[in-house]
Amino acid sequence: MESLGLLGHSLASAKEFNAPKRSDLTMANKNGKKIIILGAGIAGMAAAYELGKAGYNCKILEARDRTGGRNWTVRQGTTETEINGVKQTSKFDKGQYMNAGPARIPQHHVTLDYCRELGVELEVFANSNEFSYYYQENAGPLSNQKIRKGTVKSDTRGYVSELLAKVADKTSLDSPLTKDDIEKLTAYLKREGDLSTDYTYKGSSRRGYKELPGGGHQPGTIDQPYSFSELLQSGMMNNISGDYSFQQQPMMFQPVGGMDQIPKALEKQLPGIITFGAEVQEIRQTANGVRIVYKTKADGKTKEITGDYCICTIPLPVLKNISADFTEPMKNAIRSINYAKTGKIGFQFKNRFWEQDDRILGGITTTNMDISQIWYPSYGYLSQKGVLIGYYNFGQNAVDYGDLSLSQRQARALNQGAKIHPQYSKEFENSFSVAWHKIKYNEGGWAEYSASDLKSYYPILNEPQGRVHLAGEHLSYLTGWMAGAFESARIVVSRIHEDVLKEGKVPSKVG
Amino acid sequence: MESLGLLGHSLASAKEFNAPKRSDLTMANKNGKKIIILGAGIAGMAAAYELGKAGYNCKILEARDRTGGRNWTVRQGTTETEINGVKQTSKFDKGQYMNAGPARIPQHHVTLDYCRELGVELEVFANSNEFSYYYQENAGPLSNQKIRKGTVKSDTRGYVSELLAKVADKTSLDSPLTKDDIEKLTAYLKREGDLSTDYTYKGSSRRGYKELPGGGHQPGTIDQPYSFSELLQSGMMNNISGDYSFQQQPMMFQPVGGMDQIPKALEKQLPGIITFGAEVQEIRQTANGVRIVYKTKADGKTKEITGDYCICTIPLPVLKNISADFTEPMKNAIRSINYAKTGKIGFQFKNRFWEQDDRILGGITTTNMDISQIWYPSYGYLSQKGVLIGYYNFGQNAVDYGDLSLSQRQARALNQGAKIHPQYSKEFENSFSVAWHKIKYNEGGWAEYSASDLKSYYPILNEPQGRVHLAGEHLSYLTGWMAGAFESARIVVSRIHEDVLKEGKVPSKVG
Mind telling me which SUPFAM superfamilies this protein's record contains (chains A, B) (predicted)? Predict the structure, then answer.
C-alpha cells in the first residue's frame, strides 16, 4: 500500500497487523496460552477472534447478557435500565430500529475489512444529504426557517466565489500565483459559484427551483438567492465543513439490518468462549499469570478464573471502580479520563413525512437548537413507518438530555423537532432514548482526551500492567469509532503474541 | 406545497397533475375512450397506467419484446443487435448487471412517487464519493496521478479560503458587507478551508493521511498539500461543481435489482394491454379518431388498429421515418432535433479491486481521458465480483465509442482505465457495451435542444396533431431523465382527458 501515499493518503490499516498464525506456536506452547478477555464488545471479541485463529485458548467475561457493548441496536422489546433505575422498553414496530451507539462506517476504517471477512452485508449510510435542512434560531433574518443544505451551499459558494473572482487579479492578493494561474482560478470560481458572465452571483438552479422544471411548457422558475449578509448572520454556512472531516466524507456505510450485525457476526465465530452475566470484581496479577474474580448475575455467586494474560476492554469509568493490581500511575490515569456525555432518541412515526412531504430520503438536518441534529433513517426508503433520531446530543454547551426524565427528553425533542417538521405531533407514535453516561457497564460515550491527557495519561494506559493489557476505542486515536476498538485489539493481540513467542521474556508481576 | 417555496425550492410535481378519475366519465363515455399508445417505455406505460385508472381503454404497441425502452438493465444473456448488425450477448454472472440507460434518481423527481406507488424498492446510488479519483492527462505536474476527490477538494477549499480571508477586510472588495459580516465571513473561511490561526492553508487531515490514525501510539501523519498552482494547472477542481447540479445533488437512488424494476412494475399494472413485436408503419388521422398501421415481427404481417386518440412516445430519430399525417412544420420539427450520442460499457471483474485495494465503495472517478468516467457499482458492496461502468461517453468533443467495433471499445476503455486501476488487466472477465445512437427503436440517448430549437421546434412538438399527442422525455425540460417521460405523459393524459370531458370539442382532423 506504500505507493498509495501518492494518492493523498494511504489506506493501509494504520499499523501493519501481523495476525498470529497457528504455525507460529511451538510445541512448548502448542495450545497457545490462556487469555482472559474482559468485555464482549468489539475490542474484546476482535481480540478473541484473532487469537483464536492461532489456537489461543480465550475466555471472555461479559457482564451483560448480550455482546456488542456500545454497538447496540434498539428494536421491539429492547429494554434498558439506567444507573439511576429509570427503565424503558422499546415499542418500535417489528423491522424498525435505531443504532444507539456507532451508526456509520467510513470507507477507510478497518471495520469494513471485518465486515467483508465476517460476511456482514453493507448499505449506504446517508450522512450528507443536500435536501436535508439547516435551521437556526436567533440568527438574523433567516432565523426559524428550514433551508435546504444544498440551497445554503449554492448561495454561499456563489457569493464567496464572486468576492474572490473580483479581486483575484488584484496585486492586493500578493499570492504566488502567476497570471495564468489567476486566469484558471477565475474560471474555476465562475464554475464553483455558477457566476454570471460579469462574475456576479445572481442565483442558480443549483439552489433549487421555485417551480420545478417539468413536461411541456414548464422550464422551471428559480427563486432569488438569500443575501450574503443574511446567510452570514444565520451561521448556517459554518456547519458545511462538518461533512468535510475525513471520518465523515461520503460514502459512509451501515450493516443491513442494524449495526449489531457486526458483534453478532463476531459472536458466531466464538462458540463457547463467552460467559454472559459475569461482573468483574477483581483483576489480579499472579506469579506468572492473571486471576480474575467475577460475580455471576444468575446466582450472585463469586467465581474466579485464571489465565496467562488478560485483555481488559472495560470502559475506564467502569474500570476505575474495579479492584485491580495496577500501579498508582495507572489507577490515576484510569480515574482521570473524561468520557463523552452523549445520547440519542429514536422517534417512531406513523408515516415517513420527511420522505413524502419534504423529499428527504436519509441524511441529517442540522440546527443550533439543543437537539443538534435530526437523522432520517437510511433504510426502508418509501415504506410507511420510520424511526428517526430526534436528537444526537453531545452534552457540551447544551442541555444534557441524560439529566432529564424519559418523558422530558421526549417532550423537549418533539417540541424542537416540530419547529422543523410540524408533522411531528400528528405522526408521533413512540420513542426510546439512550444516555450513554447513564448506562451501566459504559457510563459514557467514548474517551475524550485533552491534549495534556494524551501526553500524561494516554501513554500509561497503553503500557501493559504485567500480563494485563487494556484495549478498546479509548486506547486509540479513533476514539468513539468501532475502528478504534478493532485497531487497539489488533495491537494488543500482536503484543501478547510477541511475548508468547519470546519464551521467558514475560514481564514480572506488578503492583 | 406552496409554502415550501420558502425552503429555497418547491418540491411539488412540476405541474399539479389531476389524475383522471373513473367518476369523471359520464354515461356518454362510461368506458372512457380507446387510446392507442405507441411505445411501452416509461412515458407510454405511465400514460396507460393513469388513463387505465379512470377506465380508459388503452392499447400499447411496442416494437420490442420487452418494456422499458431506454430504461434497460443488461444482465446475463441480454442480447442486442446494433443497427449496423453488430450483435452481442451479455456474459455477466447471475446477479451482476448494468443499467445501460437511466441509472440514478434524484429525490425531487416524480419518478420516486411512482416507485412508492408501484412498490419499487430503492437503495442509494452513490453518485458523489470523496474517495473516488480525479485523473488528468496533459495537465501539469499532477498529470497521470489518481488523486482522491476529497483531497483535491480539501486543498482547493484551503487555498481559496486563504486567498479571500487575507483580503476580506480590504476595501478592495468593495462589497456591501458590514464589518460584522466580514468578521463572520473570515470565521467561516477559516472553517471552510481548515486554515491555521494566521489564516494560511498548511494542509489538513480532511485531505487524508499519509499514515492513518489507529490504535496505541499512532496519531496518524498528514501529507503536504499540493501547491495551489499544481492544482490549478491540473484542472481537477473544475470537475467539482459537477456534483452541484440540482439533478445530481446527494442523495440519489436506484431500484434494488436494476433500473428496469420500474418498467416491470408498470407492466404488471397493464395486463393484456401491450402488444409486443409491433413495429409502427403509419400514423393516420381519421374523421374522428386515429388509425395505426403496424407490422408484427412474429409473422411479418401488416395489421392496423383504430382508436379515439393516439399517444406517440416514439423517439424522434425513429418517428421521422414513420409515415404520419402530420403537418409539414411538425414533420420538420421531428426531423430537426438532435439526439445525444451516448453510451456505456460494463466491465465484469473477477474481484472488486476498487473496494479491496482502493477503498472505493460506489461513486464515480472523473478523468479528461475520453472514457470520461468510471462508475463503481452501488450494489453488492464487499462481494467478490462486480460490474463497473468503464466509460460514460457523451460523444461531443470526444471519441464516439459507438463508431468503434465492440473489441475496439473494450480495448480502448480497458487501456485508459488501467492507467487509473492497473488491476484491470489481471481482473477483467467480460464486457457489454451500449451505443444508444446505434440501437434500433432509439437511435439516440435523449433529445438535445438548442436554445433556438426550444423557440422554434419545441412548441410545435408539444401541440397535438389532431388526436395524436407526442409524449416522452423529449417533450419535457427534463430530457434524459425518466422524470421527463413521466411528467410529459401526465400532461398528455390531462390534455386528452380534458378533451374527452369537453364533448364535441375535439379538434378536427389535420394533414
Answer: FAD-linked reductases, C-terminal domain (SSF54373), FAD/NAD(P)-binding domain (SSF51905)
What Cα–Cα distance (Å) separates residue A96 from each residue in A92, A103, A390, A481, B299?
6, 15, 15, 24, 54
Neighbours of B301 (CB within 10 A): 9
Grid cell locating A249: 466524507
The alpha carbon of residue A84 is apart from the nearest alpha carbon of chain B, in Å, by 33
Half-sphere exposure of A197 (CA within 13 A, CB side): 0
Residue of A249, A353, A358 to mutate for B, most B C-beta atoms under 10 A: A249
Give SS3 for A242.
Answer: helix
B11 and B108 Cβ atoms separated by less than 8 Å: yes
Angstrom CA distances, B505 to B31, B288, B470, stand at: 18, 11, 19
Omega before A237 within 30 of 0, i.e. cis: no
Do the chains contact at A167 and B170, CB–CB below 8 Å? yes
Between strands B278-286 and B323-324, the pairing is parallel
Q: Which residues of chain B have pLDDT under 70?
A: 1-16, 26-31, 171-174, 395-398, 503-511
Contact list, B173 vs chain A (CB under 8 Å): 163, 166-167
CATH for B147-234 is 1.20.1440.240
User: For the segment B154-178, what is each residue's pLDDT rounded down to a tens digit?
Assistant: 999 999 999 999 888 775 566 778 9
Q: Specify the pairing of strand A386-393 against strand A343-349.
A: antiparallel
Say if CB B239 and CB B232 are below 8 A apart.
no
Cα atoms found within 13 Å of the Cα of residue A105, Cβ hemisphere only: 31
Residue of A nearest to B192 (CA): A241
CA dist B148 and B30 (Å) reads 62
| Contact at CB, B189 and A160, closer than 8 angstroms | yes
Q: At residue A142, what are phi and psi to the nearest 5 degrees? A: -90, 10
User: Average pLDDT, whole number, for chain A?
Assistant: 92
State the residue for C-alpha cell 404488471.
B268
- How buried is residue B288: exposed, middle or buried, by Cβ count under 10 Å (0-12/13-18/19+)? exposed
The Cα B413–Cα B417 span in angstroms is 6
Confidence label for A17 from pLDDT (cuts 50, 70 and 90): confident
Give the cell for residue B455. 423557440
Q: Taking CB atoms and an 8 Å cutoff, what residues of chain A touch B249?
A: 130-131, 150, 206
Residue found under cell 452534552: A395
What is the DSSP secondary-structure string of B457-508? THHHHHS-BTTEEE-SGGGBSSTTSHHHHHHHHHHHHHHHHHHHHSTT-PPP
C-alpha torsion angle, residues B241, B246, B250, B255 (rounded to 10)? -130
pTM: 0.94
Q: What is the CATH number of domain A73-131+250-258+342-438?
A: 3.90.660.10
* Extents of the domains making up chain A: 22-69+269-339+445-502, 73-131+250-258+342-438, 147-234
- Note the pLDDT of residue B21: 86
Do B244 and A487 lie within an 8 Å CB cutoff?
no
The reported pLDDT for the residue numbered A355 is 97
* Single-letter amino acid code for the residue at A404: L
CATH code matching the domain that covers B22-69+269-339+445-502, chosen among 3.40.50.10860, 3.20.20.100, 3.50.50.60, 1.20.1530.20: 3.50.50.60
User: Chain A contacts of B253, Cβ < 8 Å?
Assistant: 361, 381
DSSP-derived secondary structure letter, B251: P
A85 min Cα distance to partner chain B (Å): 35
Q: Which helix (H) or strand (E) holds A500?
A: helix A482-501
B100, B73 in Cβ contact below 8 A?
yes
Which amino acid, one-letter code, is at A366? T
- A105: closest chain B residue by CA: B361
